[in-house]
Amino acid sequence: MVRRITEKDRDEYLKMTAAFYETDAVAKKIPEEFRIRTFEELMRSDVYAQAYILEADGQTAGYALLSKTFSQEAGGMVVWIEELFMKDSFRGRGLGKEFFQVLFKEYGDTIRRFRLEVEPENETAVALYKKLGFDYMDYAQMKLGE
């Protein structure tokens, strides 16, 4: 099951985000304060940030964090799948695929592009994303600041 995050998910969301930032999928850890700020923003508004909780067997299995933006290059709205995390015991059960089915249905034709980052070594994720129609972009990302 995939559902939007609610206030009651706070503690579990913070635990899962802590676990996510301990994985090889991220370049560096972030302070708990940042994750708390994100949760508070998710509770305040879903205009540019949104999250989902993934459940299986009556338990929290993972979460997804999205960012929304307008892109001239894409000709409209873009949804970034910022984070997609699954607890180890729930991996390989089709929950990632289910999440994307819900996401595509919810946004339908209103979004011009879905975008995400993936570590090339994460072959399972790469295979899923390719099967869903994602393709690599020829970009090297740069940043200034956190």
Write the topology of this structure.
Elements: E1 2-4, H1 10-20, H2 32-44, E2 49-56, E3 59-71, E4 76-86, H3 95-107, E5 113-116, H4 123-131
Parallel strand pairs: 4-5
Antiparallel strand pairs: 1-2, 2-3, 3-4
Describe, in plain words, how this protein is organized in 3D.
- With 146 residues, the protein is α+β, with helices and mostly antiparallel strands.
- It contains 4 helices and 5 strands; from the N terminus they run βααβββαβα.
- It has helices at residues 10-20, 32-44, 95-107, 123-131; strands at 2-4, 49-56, 59-71, 76-86, 113-116.
- The chain has a 5-stranded mixed beta sheet with strand order 1-2-3-4-5.
- A hairpin with a 2-residue loop joins strand 2 (49-56) and strand 3 (59-71).
- Helix 1 packs across helix 2.
- The N and C termini lie far apart (33 Å).
- The relative contact order is 0.14.
Gyration radius, in Å: 15 Å
Low-confidence runs: none
Percent strand:
25-35%
Largest sheet: 5 strands, mixed
Order of helices and strands: EHHEEEHEH
Write down the overall geometry.
globular
Structural class comes to: alpha+beta
Q: Order of strands side by side in the largest beta sheet?
A: 1-2-3-4-5
Question: How many runs of DSSP E, i.e. beta strands?
Answer: 5
Give average pLDDT, whole number: 94
Q: Share of helix among residues?
A: 25-40%
Distance between the termini: 33 Å
Helix segment count?
A: 4
